[in-house]
Amino acid sequence: LLLLLALILLATTAEAGKNKKEKVKKEGSECEDWRWGPCVPNSKDCGLGYREGTCKDESKKLKCKIPCNWKKKFGADCKYKFESWGGCSAQTGVKTRSGILKKALYNAQCEEIVYVTKPCSSKIKSKSKAKKGKGKD
């Protein structure tokens, strides 16, 4: 009796899943060549927002999010694989690394290779901080 009840429950759940899939197909678009714009935050330059898409005479809005620590000039829709940081340049006081395009989301226009820099940290300062934190009496 318990086994029969479990089978009926499983069949009901599977049937409900089919109905949901059919509804999504009916509501969805048959257009396959969507062009998506950038994620536009609702306020300021980061956080929750939306992106608009068009396909033929149809248009849609999707929710999106730009992380607030995202300050890169190449945009949140371009995903890169980065190398390790290079050595510190004595002339500029910065170190550099490059990234190769891994994925462009929503048909974003992305550069194939990007370069990012950050200030060099003083190795003497970081070592002295580590010694102070590990001091034993």
Automatic annotation (TrEMBL):
Ranges of residues in domain Pleiotrophin/Midkine N-terminal = 18-74
Q: Note whether Ribonucleoprotein occurs among the keywords.
A: no
Please cite one Gene Ontology biological process associated with this protein: positive regulation of cell division
Q: Which Pfam families match?
A: PTN_MK_C, PTN_MK_N
For this record, an example GO cellular component is: extracellular region
Q: Which InterPro entries match?
A: Midkine_heparin-bd_GF, PTN/MK_C_dom, PTN/MK_C_dom_sf, PTN/MK_diS_sf, PTN/MK_N_dom, PTN/MK_N_dom_sf, PTN_MK_heparin-bd_GF_CS
Q: What is its main location?
A: secreted
* Gene Ontology MF terms in the entry: growth factor activity; heparin binding
Key word Disulfide bond present: yes
Q: Which domain of life is it from?
A: Eukaryota
Q: Where is the Pleiotrophin/Midkine C-terminal domain?
A: 75-136
Question: What Gene3D superfamilies does the annotation carry?
Answer: Heparin-binding Growth Factor, Midkine, Chain A- C-terminal Domain, Pleiotrophin/Midkine, N-terminal domain
Q: Tell me which positions the record assigns to the signal sequence.
A: 1-16
Keyword entries, A-Z: Developmental protein, Disulfide bond, Growth factor, Heparin-binding, Mitogen, Secreted, Signal
Question: Could you say which protein family the record assigns here?
Answer: Belongs to the pleiotrophin family.
Protein's job? Secreted protein that functions as cytokine and growth factor and mediates its signal through cell-surface proteoglycan and non-proteoglycan receptors. Regulates many processes like inflammatory response, cell proliferation, cell adhesion, cell growth, cell survival, tissue regeneration, cell differentiation and cell migration.
Q: What is this protein called?
A: Midkine
List the top taxonomic levels of the source. Eukaryota, Metazoa, Chordata, Craniata, Vertebrata
